[in-house]
UniProtKB/TrEMBL annotation:
Keyword Endoplasmic reticulum set for record: yes
Self-association and partners: Interacts with SNARE complex members GOSR2, SEC22B and STX5. Interacts with LMAN1/ERGIC53. Interacts with STX17.
Topology of the protein relative to the lipid bilayer: Single-pass type IV membrane protein; Single-pass membrane protein
Native species: Poecilia reticulata
Matching SUPFAM superfamilies: SNARE fusion complex (SSF58038)
Residue ranges of the TM segments: 90-109
Protein name: BET1 homolog
Keyword terms: Coiled coil, Endoplasmic reticulum, ER-Golgi transport, Golgi apparatus, Membrane, Phosphoprotein, Protein transport, Transmembrane, Transmembrane helix, Transport
T-SNARE coiled-coil homology domain ranges (all copies): 20-82
GO BP, sorted A to Z: protein transport; vesicle-mediated transport
GO cellular component: endoplasmic reticulum membrane; Golgi apparatus
Localization per record: Endomembrane system; Endoplasmic reticulum membrane; Golgi apparatus, cis-Golgi network membrane
Length: 112
C-alpha cells in the first residue's frame, strides 16, 4: 500500500510538474504576444502621426495651388485683354519676358 501511495504522490507530482511547465510556456508565449502587441501599437501610433502630418501638408499644398491658380487665371485674363487690342508689340515683349522668367526658374531649379 505504501508503494501505491508513493506512486500516487509521485504521479501527482509529475502532473503538477507538467502543469507547471505548461504554465511557464504559456507565460513565455503571453509575454512574447504582449511585446508584439506593444510593437504594433507603437507602430500604428507612428503611422497615425505620419498620416496627420501628410494630410496637413496636402491641405497646405491644396491652398497654395488654389491661390496660384487664381493668380494664373487673372494673368491669362490680362494677356487675353492685351491680345484683343492692337498692342502686339507689347504682347510680344510680355511673352518674351515670361519665357525669360521661366527659363531662369528652370535653370535655378536645375542647379539645386
Amino acid at each position: 500500500m505504501r508503494r501505491a501511495g508513493l506512486g500516487e504522490g509521485s504521479s501527482g507530482h509529475y502532473v503538477a510538474s507538467g502543469y507547471s511547465v505548461h504554465e511557464e510556456e504559456n507565460d513565455h508565449l503571453q509575454e512574447g504576444l504582449r511585446n508584439k502587441v506593444s510593437a504594433l501599437k507603437s507602430l500604428s501610433i507612428e503611422i497615425g502621426t505620419e498620416v496627420k502630418y501628410q494630410n496637413k501638408m496636402l491641405d497646405d499644398m491644396d491652398s497654395d495651388f488654389d491661390s496660384t491658380g487664381g493668380l494664373l487665371g487673372a494673368t491669362i485674363g490680362r494677356v487675353k485683354q492685351l491680345s484683343r487690342g492692337s498692342q502686339t508689340k507689347l504682347l510680344c515683349y510680355m511673352l518674351l519676358f515670361c519665357f525669360f522668367v521661366f527659363f531662369i526658374l528652370y535653370w535655378f531649379i536645375k542647379l539645386r
